[in-house]
Structures are given as structure tokens and as C-alpha cells.
Design goal:
It comes from Apostasia shenzhenica. By secondary structure, the chain is an alpha+beta fold. Helices cover 24% and strands 27% of the residues. It has a domain of 48 residues.
Length: 476
């Protein structure tokens, strides 16, 4: 926790340094690094020192915008280097829904934007302006819209590198898309998807039309609908409900409650090391600090320019933002399930009975694995990888597993009645799939079941036998 908090704070400080440098450079008439071609450039990093990051990697390039990343370096066994990303979006564009394998703090360098992301089964939308920072948790599906019709949107992002994915600086998993970019949905076979969405193969094929890349232009009608659409932007979210991340006070309180339960069970023996006696002074200090600290929602943005400067003299000024100013900086990565996505943990499973299939999808939308499993087989799912389990027809599949985290899972799903796609605003999602809102609605609302979905009788007949829609199930 301390390490991540420190990294997050460092990322914000770095963003401020970059911002200052950009303004000074522009004032001097030297141009802006946003307009330079930096793909593959090494710069002078090799000759300037060990801690100079000089290479920009272009990870997204479309007519609507681009994303470039400067990779951090591992240092003395550090498994979580910080990377810095630069996002540039032209007016009236959409960065289509996706999730990445790292916490990402967005800093709006210039322009205005609308960002939406999943927070506990709901879409939270925020309108950000220059100077705002906002956290998008790892694994949380998000999208960005530049609704301005005149100015570019420029974002600096700190990216906390995932420990388990080694494909590059970070990995995007596109929820929407088509031919370009490929949606992670495309990695599942047709029978799985038609059953999951409860539509025909022809209807499903209509979703794969997008060819504009990850950043696409929006027409004026869509922009108008987005601007006028209602959102839960002002929805109050409990300050203490911190992405399931317990505060120190919460943990201490839990320890006190456990002791009280033990006493109720009959253990009345006086113990000199009683948790209540030991922790009471600390609890009082925590409560006192909370009383004097202004509350900030975990989903609210924080504007750097509105914060009081920490130091100022005739030659300049400084300010810093930490978890006490902006509570999300104290949080760790929060993952989701996506048909099922393994969350912030890797999963290890043992098939206890029956047989079936395990399907796993790569971030690029291709199939990573489609394997038959039976009793006694052991499997594991890398964190953030989409996957599903299918039981064999006429049988069941029972499996038991471990995860690499003891924290509560809060799964989210792509298919079925509880699909994350149903929660997302129709204009943005339809534009991302390049289909009409009506067509998208028919596909997304056709399946009435959720979480564990039946294979339809039509699919069973195509497979060569078996009737009864509920005999073969798949966990999505």
C-alpha cells in the first residue's frame, strides 16, 4: 500500500513538472512536444544519465488522435515501474470503451472532456477541465469523449505497471470495437457468444463493423445526445466506501469487533494485551484526524490549480497532492470480471467433478486457449484476461479455486442481464461498435439470464444433438 501510494504521488509530481516545462517551452516559441513525431525515438537518454527516460512508444495512432507512452525502468527489483502516457484527441472524438492492466491517473493538460468508468456495477461519469486529475482503477472499463468542437484534448497519465502482464508498457483490452481495434469479445467462439447474448450469429456479426481504430470521430447528432444525456455525475457515493479498500481505522475497528465476539462466546478471561486497550489511543488519533480533514468522494475529480501552494517565493512555487488531499491515491488496483475477467488476482482452479471447456482470450481479441477439462485438471487464469467456463452437455462441472488476493471480488460481466455493456450510455457504445442504438439495444437486451447462462436449443442442434436449454451452462 505504501509503495503504491508513493508511486501515485510521484506520478502527480511528474505530471506537474511536465506541465511546467510545456508552458515554458511554448512561451519561448519553441513549439510543443505534442506535435512532434516521437515514435521510436531514443532521444539522448543513453548519454544523459541512468534516470532519463527518452523513448516514446506510439501505442495508438488514428485520424482522431494518438497515445504515446514513456516506459519506466525496473530498478533494483522494483516490480511496479511507473510509465507516463500522453493522450491527444481531436475535437468530437471518442476513445472507445476499454480497460487496462494498471491503475491510471488522468491529468487534463488542456481542453475539456467527459470520462466514464465502472464503479461497483454503475457507470460514473465526470466532466473534467484543465488541471483536473481523476483515477481510473485497473480493470475498470472506461471511455473518454472530447465533446469540444474546436480544441484538442491533451491528457498526461501516470500508469502503474501491472506485475503479471509483460507485453509492454501497459495492455489495453478493448470492450467495444470490430475489425480495428479487435474487441476481446471476438476471441470467444460463435456458439459461446450467440448463447451469451441470446441472438443469432447474423445479429452478432453486425457488431464487428468498427474500422476506425481506438479513437474515432463522432457525428454532431451523437455529440448532441452525449451533451444532453443525463448522467449520474452528481450521484453521492459514500466517502468511506473506498473501492473495497479498507482504511486503517476500518481494520482497527474490525479487530475490536472480533474481540467483542470472542467475549460474547464466553471468553471472559481478562487479557492484559487486549486489542481494545492497545488500539484505543490509536483509534482516537485516527478519528481526530478524520474530523479535521475534508471529505472527498472516491470518484470525484481534484483540480491541482485550486489547491493552495505548499511553498512560494519570488522565484517560483510548489504544490503536491497526496492521499490526504485526494483519497483515490491511496487505493490499489481494482479489477473486474469480463465474461469472466479475472480481477486484480490470478486465479488457480481445480476441477472437482464433471467436465467442460475453459476459454481464455488475449488482450488483442484472439483466442489464448480453448481447452477441454475434466475431473482432476488444474488451470490458472492470468489476471485481467477474459475467460469463461462451459459445462459439457448433459453434465455438470464443479471446480474449486484460489486467488492471489483475499479481497472481496466484485465481478462485472460483458454478457447477460448484468452485462457492463447494458450500463454504458447508448450513444457512446453504439458509436464504438459503429452500429445504430436500436441495433445495439436488440443485441444487448436479448439475454434475460445473468452470470450463468444457458446454451440455447438451436446451438445444441448445431452441435449434433441434445435438447433442453438448461442442460449445458456456461459461466460468464
Amino acid at each position: 500500500m505504501a509503495l503504491r501510494t508513493n508511486l501515485s504521488a510521484a506520478a502527480l509530481l511528474f505530471a506537474l513538472v511536465v506541465l511546467t516545462a510545456c508552458r515554458q517551452q511554448a512561451a519561448a516559441g519553441e513549439g510543443s512536444f505534442w506535435e512532434e513525431e516521437m515514435d521510436g525515438q531514443e532521444g539522448d537518454a543513453a548519454g544523459r544519465g541512468l534516470f532519463i527516460l527518452g523513448k516514446f512508444q506510439q501505442v495508438v495512432k488514428t485520424a482522431g488522435g494518438e497515445v504515446k507512452v514513456v516506459r519506466g525502468h525496473r530498478w533494483k527489483g522494483d516490480l511496479n515501474p511507473m510509465h507516463i502516457g500522453f493522450v491527444s484527441m481531436k475535437p468530437n472524438t471518442l476513445f472507445i470503451p476499454q480497460y487496462i492492466d494498471a491503475n491510471m491517473i488522468l491529468f487534463v493538460r488542456s481542453g475539456k472532456m467527459k470520462v466514464g468508468w465502472m464503479h461497483k456495477d454503475k457507470v460514473v461519469e465526470r466532466r473534467l477541465k484543465s488541471g483536473d486529475i481523476s483515477l481510473v482503477p485497473a480493470g475498470s472499463t472506461f471511455y473518454i469523449v472530447n465533446t469540444c468542437d474546436q480544441h484538442k484534448l491533451q491528457i498526461i497519465a501516470s500508469i502503474e505497471y501491472s506485475q503479471t502482464l509483460t507485453f509492454g508498457s501497459y495492455q489495453s483490452f478493448f470492450v467495444a470495437g470490430g475489425a480495428n481495434p479487435a474487441s476481446v469479445l471476438a476471441g470467444f467462439d460463435r456458439k459461446t457468444l450467440t448463447a451469451a447474448f441470446n441472438v443469432s450469429g447474423e445479429e452478432l456479426a453486425g457488431l464487428w463493423r468498427q474500422t476506425g481504430g481506438p479513437i474515432v470521430f463522432l457525428n454532431h447528432e451523437t455529440i448532441s445526445r452525449i451533451e444532453n444525456s443525463s448522467s449520474n455525475e452528481e450521484e453521492a457515493i459514500d466517502e468511506d466506501d473506498n473501492y473495497e479498500n479498507e482504511s486503517t481505522a476500518d481494520q482497527l475497528r474490525e479487530m475490536e469487533e472480533e474481540e467483542e465476539e470472542e467475549e460474547e462466546d464466553g471468553d471472559d478471561e481478562e487479557r492484559p494485551w487486549s486489542w481494545r486497550k492497545i488500539l484505543k489511543p490509536l483509534m482516537e488519533k485516527v478519528k481526530e484526524r478524520r474530523r479535521h480533514r475534508p471529505a472527498r468522494s472516491t470518484t470525484k475529480a481534484f483540480n491541482l490549480y485550486n489547491k493552495e501552494r505548499d511553498f512560494e517565493n519570488s522565484y517560483g512555487w510548489t504544490l503536491a497532492v497526496d492521499e490526504h488531499d485526494y483519497k483515490p491515491l491511496a487505493t490499489s488496483g481494482v479489477g473486474v470480471y469480463l465474461v469472466n475477467l479475472s480481477e486484480v488476482t490470478s486465479e488457480y482452479g481445480v476441477v472437482l467433478g464433471g467436465s467442460g471447456e475453459i476459454q481464455v482470450v488475449f488482450p488483442n481479441g484472439s483466442t489464448a486457449m480453448n481447452a477441454a477439462v475434466e475431473e482432476g485438471d488444474v488451470f490458472w487464469i492470468p489476471r485481467y484476461f477474459p475467460f469463461c467456463q462451459l459445462a459439457s452437455r448433459g453434465a455438470h462441472m464443479e471446480f474449486f479455486g484460489f486467488t492471489t488476493s483475499a479481497r472481496r471480488n466484485r465481478p462485472q460481466f460483458l454478457a447477460g442481464a448484468s452485462s457492463v455493456l447494458r450500463s454504458m450510455p447508448a450513444p457512446e457504445l453504439a458509436a464504438a461498435f459503429d452500429v445504430s442504438e436500436e441495433e445495439l439495444g436488440r443485441v444487448l437486451k436479448a439475454q434475460e439470464e445473468k452470470v450463468i447462462l444457458p446454451i440455447g436449443s438451436g446451438e445444441a442442434e448445431e452441435d449434433g444433438g441434445g435438447v433442453g436449454t438448461m442442460k449445458r451452462r456456461m459461466s460468464l
